[in-house]
Structure formats: structure tokens, C-alpha cells
Amino acid sequence: MFSSINVTFILVISSFFLQIAESFCNLPDARRTTSLLMAPRFDRQTERWEASKPSEEASEGYGPIGSLIRAGPLPFFQRIVNADKYEQAVLKYMANDGVDRMEAQGNMDAYFENPNGMFIIFP
User: Which residues 6+ apart lie within 8 Å of 95 measured at CB?
Assistant: First the structure.
């Protein structure tokens, strides 16, 4: 009926698709919660947002290629041309909304992709 090669192939393909489907699940994990006491801080002397712990630094998020893949060319170019402005926007979003770095980057990428349509609420 089924040869061992066919069964192996079906198992490999099904596990591959299971991995892909799992990546789209919104599973709770420890990274999703941010204590407001440890949110990025605004330094009034330098007038810049600064990370208050290592998990808030730029190296913890995804790079410009991640922005290109997730949101398209506009956020990618924004990150290349205005890297500091992008970083300050992400830190400010993290501090104001109490979210982790990945969520803040995703929302800022969505904003830079379409600033007018980001906050549209559909009835």
C-alpha cells in the first residue's frame, strides 16, 4: 500500500507544515510581559530614550532584514536611513505602551509602512 519512502516523506512534510502553522500561533511566553518599572527611560539631559535592561536593547529585536520581510521596503529603508530615529520610536513605544521589543518593532514597522491606516478601526 504505502512504501516506507512515501510514509517518511509524508511525515517530514506534515512536520514541516506543523512547524509553519505553529509559528503563527500567539502562544503566551515570558517575553511578552514587560514590567512598567523596567520600561525604557527618557533622559531629560540628552533628550533621548534609553533601554533600562538588556532585553530592551536593539540587539534583542530583529534587524533591518526582518523589517523588510515582515513589513516591506518602507520600514526597511526607514531603518537604514534614519536608524537612530527608528530606535528612539521603538523605545518610546515600549515605554508608553508597556510592550516588549518585538511587539514594539512590529507596530513601528506597520506604522512606517502605512501611517494613515495603522489605527483604522473597522465596524
Answer: 39, 40, 41, 42, 49
